[in-house]
Amino acid sequence: GRASPLPLMAEAAALAALSVRGSENRFPDWGRSGYVWVREPQQMYVAAKVLSEAGGKLTVSTVSTGAQSVVEKSNTLPMNPPSFWLAEDMSTFTELNEATVLGNLRDRYAQSLIYTFSGLFCVVINPYRLLPIYTDECVRMYRGRVRGELPPHVFAVADESYRHMLQTGEDQSIICTGESGSGKTENSKRIIQFFAVAAAGGRSRAQPSSPTRRKSIVGGSVTPTMHRPSFALAASPAADLEEEEETQAALFASRVTRRASMAEVLLQNSAIAVGTLEEQLIQANPILETFGNAATEKNDNSSRFGK
Fold first, then answer.
1. Following DSSP, what letter does each residue of 282-304 receive, concatenated?
2. What's the pTM value of the predicted model, to 2 decimals?
């Protein structure tokens, strides 16, 4: 049958929230004029257009304000061409320096693009608000995708680790590091969410179980048990054959209906069990945080132990 539009809408919303919106050519005369990064007390670095050069000094005009100033050339840093604006992977930069990295992260953050790749690393900036990019549909969207096929996301890192584990049979590690309040705990929860949904998604709920097997829910776990048909047509006199056949047919139909109902209930229970597992894993964090967290200058509920 046709797929429900709701998951597709959720996937489209997540993809829209993760993608660059619009384009901007801030340097239309890039080929004719030079641009550099200039140190600035408040923003650390700002983009500036080079007006002239003499004696190791540059006369520049700040792009954002138009203010002119004279700076030492040695105190400036080269800038990437406009084609690298809002780059998803900073390891592709032709000019890789502190200013280009900070400038790219700042511009992406202004568009609520909180994830940015840098080679093997995924840089995350805490948005301090909820974003529609952590749904189960978004998890499934990142399953089995090649790095770079979709916008940067912690789910892409989790999927790569998950696939390596399946392919090599070896343990994998994901290191979440950063200062207090940077989002380490929240991203750890999202990684757990990905693993829970990905592992549960290995079995298609839309496919019925084999007619010779059924599943029983025992203590929250799914235990496969063999099932043999318990009905058989018994021999009967010719005079009662038609009535006996009708009785057996009705009995067979009743059992088929009952088993279909049982299968539906078991599938529902299986879905509930999966959801409960995911929720238990994620909701276990607040309990642990009660015993191990502390307040810092930037975070009133900072984690004090590994997850």
1. HHHHHHHHHHH-B--SS-TTB--
2. 0.67
| Interval 55-59 mean pLDDT | 92
E strands present in the chain? 35-40, 44-54, 57-62, 68-72, 76-78, 115-118, 121-124, 213-218, 221-226
In this predicted model, what pLDDT tens digit does every residue of 137-181 receive, in sequence order? 899 899 999 888 999 999 999 999 999 999 999 999 999 988 888
Torsions phi, psi for 21 (to 5 deg): -105, 115
Long-range contacts of 22-31 (CB under 8 A, 24+ apart): 24/85, 25/82, 26/63, 26/82, 26/85, 27/63, 27/82, 30/81, 30/82
Q: What is the DSSP letter of 217?
A: E
Contacts with 153 (C-beta within 8 Å, 6 or more apart), sequence order? 18, 115, 122, 133, 138, 142
133: left (phi over 0), alpha (psi -120 to 50) or beta: alpha
